[in-house]
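Hi support team,

I've been running sequence recovery on a batch of backbones for a student project. Most finish fine, but this one hangs at about 90% for roughly twenty minutes before it completes. I'm not sure whether the input is malformed or the queue is just slow. I've pasted the structure tokens below so you can try to reproduce it. Let me know if you need the job ID as well.

Thanks,
M.K.
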């Protein structure tokens, strides 16, 4: 085969291998070798190659991917060669002045390891930027049916005297109830969506916050009117039965209807007991924002002290109720005996 035939086949290969890639001329680039400026692998030194092999032929010197000229491997590149080559690339790609300067600084990195570290840093920064511009999750709209169930069942959960507290437990109870009744709208698909559950959880929290505030307002009003001069409540107070009705109406609304039970009355008596204890500390007719935390703490203390013994727990609540009747308003023993003795759980409430 003649040299002309070799040149022709090389040109065809170069054109085919670079098809579809940016039209960048690498012919003026430096030798691609060690960045330290030493002789390149396979270059000629004193008539022999640095690795002891024969002087490379023209075919071995041509890199069809980079488009280097046959003589490119004959001399090592200097740092300035790389800078000049970076300027050539910057012009070809029409980089901005700032981008060209950045490319020149990169070209002057002393070793390949320096370049790889620089490249890794750039990739990390690029990933961070990509994450930052990711579109936000599409806002989940709670279906009307599920929203209505949350409104309704949050009331019944709050008035369920079997729950062990009023801050976190009502939310857990309601979500469990919704999961047990998939037809209400909390399907498995909705449950598997983090965005959807975050929206649902937010609405549930808002409902229970609203219920707690309504109940606390009624408890505060049950003491009468606060007198700043005497630092005491004056005027008529409400007996525990009427207060329970007020709390139930405030939480559930005027149209809400549920039978008042003795466990519910005693639970409201415990709330008023905690409120009264805090009033004696603040001396301003108001309680601190941790009121419901203190209610939960009192409930927990009773359970722990009585060893979850139902009879002993009932006795403890009975003492609270007796003290409430004596202090804030009478309700006869006969009237109390007419109240259902068994708590109505949310699963047993109508609706």
């Amino acid at each position: 085969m003649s040299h002309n035939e070799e040149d022709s086949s090389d040109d065809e290969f170069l054109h085919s291998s670079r098809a579809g890639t940016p039209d960048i001329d690498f012919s003026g680039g430096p030798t691609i070798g060690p960045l330290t400026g030493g002789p390149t692998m396979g270059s000629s030194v004193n008539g022999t190659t640095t690795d002891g092999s024969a002087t490379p032929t023209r075919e071995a010197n041509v890199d069809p991917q980079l488009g280097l000229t046959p003589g490119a491997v004959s001399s090592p590149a200097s740092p300035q060669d790389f800078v000049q080559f970076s300027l050539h690339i910057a012009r070809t790609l029409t980089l901005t002045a700032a981008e060209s300067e950045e490319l020149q600084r990169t070209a002057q990195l002393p070793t390949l390891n320096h370049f790889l570290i620089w490249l890794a840093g750039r990739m990390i920064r690029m990933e961070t930027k990509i994450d930052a511009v990711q579109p936000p999750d599409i806002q989940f709209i709670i279906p009307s049916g599920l929203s209505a169930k949350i409104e309704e069942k949050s009331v019944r959960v709050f008035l369920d005297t079997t729950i062990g507290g009023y801050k976190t437990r009502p939310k857990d109870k309601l979500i469990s109830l919704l999961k047990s009744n998939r037809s209400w709208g909390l399907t498995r698909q909705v449950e598997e969506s983090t965005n959807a559950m975050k929206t649902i959880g937010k609405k549930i929290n808002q409902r229970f916050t609203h219920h707690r505030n309504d109940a606390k307002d009624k408890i505060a009003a049950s003491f009468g009117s606060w007198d700043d001069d005497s630092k005491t409540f004056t005027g008529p107070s409400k007996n525990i039965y009427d207060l329970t009705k007020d709390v139930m109406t405030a939480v559930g609304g005027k149209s809400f209807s549920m039978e008042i039970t003795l466990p519910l009355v005693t639970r409201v008596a415990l709330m008023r007991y905690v409120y009264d204890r805090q009033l004696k500390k603040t001396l301003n007719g108001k309680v601190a924002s941790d009121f419901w935390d203190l209610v939960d703490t009192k409930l927990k203390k009773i359970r722990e002290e009585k060893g979850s013994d139902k009879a002993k727990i009932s006795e403890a609540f009975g003492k609270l109720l007796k003290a409430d009747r004596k202090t804030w308003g009478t309700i006869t023993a006969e009237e109390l005996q007419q109240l259902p003795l068994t708590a109505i759980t949310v699963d047993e409430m109508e609706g």
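--
Follow-up from support: It reproduced on our side and the slowdown came from queue contention, not your input. DSSP finds 14 helices and four strands in the chain. No action needed from you.
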